[in-house]
Design goal:
alpha+beta, 4 helices, globular
Length: about 140
């Protein structure tokens, strides 16, 4: 089975719009706080899109992880994955869902100018949050 270019393009566009909707929230990670990342939970799938991985029709996505994975991994909240009938592979992990959505959004932007627009709208806001946390005098250094 293979996905057509048209199917992949439409799927990527839908996923990008869903990501933008999530990133518009004041507290991006807060939207997912009470959702289950358990392996068989439908809530674990934050956003998915169609594509090909190593020549295999696959689904890519940002998935939440369960509490065991979070504690075992040192704080990972979500993963960037690819999966099909024959495989499931973690590509990257993130300590915040917002960061995972940003990376996926940059990947899904179809052209360089769209990547710049996406980063200016969402990436700069995220960077400001990071700077504010870093400069917070109440922050506990680990």
């Amino acid at each position: 089975m293979e996905y057509s270019e048209k199917e992949i393009k439409a799927s990527r566009a839908d996923a990008l719009e869903k990501i933008k909707t999530f990133l518009e929230a004041d507290d991006v990670d807060g939207q997912f706080q009470n959702m289950s990342g358990e392996y068989h939970s439908p809530e674990k799938f934050v956003v998915t899109w169609k594509g090909h991985w190593m020549g295999i029709a696959s689904e890519f996505g940002i998935d939440l992880v369960d509490s065991f994975y979070t504690s075992y991994s040192g704080g990972v909240k979500c993963i960037y994955v690819t999966r099909s009938l024959f495989h499931e592979k973690e590509i990257k992990s993130f300590r915040s869902v917002e960061r995972g959505l940003l990376e996926a959004g940059m990947t899904l932007c179809p052209k360089l100018d769209k990547k710049y627009d996406f980063f200016e709208r969402y990436g700069l806001k995220y960077n400001e949050k990071i700077k504010a946390k870093k400069n917070d005098p109440q922050r506990v250094h680990s």
